[in-house]
Amino acid sequence: MNSDSDLKSRRPLSPHLTIYKPQITSVLSILHRISGVALYFSFLGLTWLYILASLGYFEISNLDNCQLFKIFTYLVIFGFFFHLSTGVRHLLWDTGYFFSVKAVEITGIIAIISSIILTYFAISLINFNPV
Amino acid sequence: MKDSYNSMRSGIAKAKNLGSSKHGSSEWIAQRISAIAIIPLTLWLIYNICTYKFFNNDQPPSDFSWIVSLALFLMICLHHAYIGMVVVIEDYVKCLKLRYFFIITLKLLTYFTIIMAAFMTTQHISLV
Q1: Chain B CB contacts of A33 below 8 Å
Q2: Is the pTM value of this prediction over 0.90?
Q3: Rg of chain B's alpha carbons, rounded to an integer?
């Protein structure tokens, strides 16, 4: 007589995720999710910096010469525009179009390129600091 | 309306309170609307950051447009992020007790932050 859990452990498994070849569809899908979670914590942290600075517990100018914070902001900007570009794809899919393999691959490549271009423009705008 | 909906469920499903949560689609729609709203808000905020640096570097930003764009951006962005995080938690946390613990913690943390940030922005407003 097999118990229920005994039977479950001997059942064949479907292939694990790692067995599949990474494709633009699956990689962009999971990166959209990862960038979203990373952006949640980044924005929460940045918002708390703003709150603490407003309360007088922290000076924003302390971060002026912090290279780590600079790298962090660049990463947040890239993450933001990546999430935005891939998010627009999700909005397009919600209209019921662009579901063919070809369309998904083309919009995926467009999303990657546009996120890089938008990041470049945003970072150059931030560094644009005429006296 | 409600009767016709309930008639589609079996007796045991009704007793176990299975079936639609009845507010799933509203969160789905809120997620999409906030996503669309963030796009122009980002442009507005970036415009304000750039023009701010242009004029005065040693004063904290205080004009109305700056504050409203920052407050709206933070509030809508964090709300959008909250709905997304709930979806992620529901997908990956199997244990129901742990799942609700995470979601409630997330909700408290996010909305406390939103309220604090919105309150702080009002401290800086100067209607010039």
Answers
A1: 88
A2: no
A3: 21
- Best of B33, B43, B48, B50 to mutate (most A CBs within 10 Å, chain A): B50
Q: What span, in angstroms and rounded, lies between the C-alpha atoms of A35 and A111?
A: 14
Residues of B with CB under 8 A from a CB of A: 32, 35-36, 38-39, 42, 46, 49-50, 53-54, 74, 77-78, 81-82, 84-85, 88, 109-110, 113, 116-117, 120, 123-124
Give the other-Cβ count within 10 Å of A111's Cβ: 22
Rounded distance, CA A91 to CA A84, Å?
10
Residues of B in contact with A90 (CB under 8 A): 35
Quote ipTM for the complex. Answer: 0.82
pLDDT in tens, A5-26: 777 777 888 878 788 888 888 9
The tens digit of pLDDT for each residue in A72-130 reads 999 999 999 999 999 999 999 999 999 999 999 999 999 999 999 999 988 887 766 55
